[in-house]
Design a protein that fits this description.
8 strands, alpha+beta, 21% helix, globular, Pnp Oxidase, Chain A
Length: 131
């Protein structure tokens, strides 16, 4: 699990894919944090991505660092407690001018039943299961 988070942080930006009806939607994300032995991401409730996740929590994440890439398949589960929201904002202080743990907009999700596959050209894929 830590290997996955370290890779995503090293990438800086990863891409989150959701579904809106029968249309895939992909957008850049940058937040990832471990809290209580779970991997979390963060968004705002007012965003379309939030509505898409609530309608269908199955997502995929993709990131690339040099010649290695990572694909994660998971289900996102909202954690509506203040503590994981604050932990995310503590990990990303730059977000604190846009979000706060008590603003009614900040939303965090943890990855459940995640399968992460590390790949690169010429090597066998490496699989990490967590959540």
């Amino acid at each position: 699990m830590k290997t996955v988070v370290d890779f995503l942080k090293s990438a800086g930006t990863y891409f989150l894919a959701t579904a809106e009806g029968d249309q895939p939607r992909v957008r850049p994300f940058g937040t990832v944090n471990i809290f209580e032995d779970k991997v979390y991401i963060q968004t705002g409730k007012v965003k379309n991505v939030s509505k898409q996740i609530h309608a269908n929590p199955k997502v995929e994440i993709c990131a690339c660092v040099e010649t290695e890439w990572l694909r994660i398949t998971a289900e996102l589960v909202e954690d509506d407690r203040r503590e994981p929201r604050q932990a995310m904002l503590d990990a990303y202080p730059a977000l604190q001018h846009m979000y706060s743990a008590d603003d009614g907009n900040t939303e965090v999700f943890y990855l459940k039943d995640a399968v992460a596959v590390f790949s690169s050209f010429g090597t066998e894929p490496r699989v990490v299961n967590f959540g």
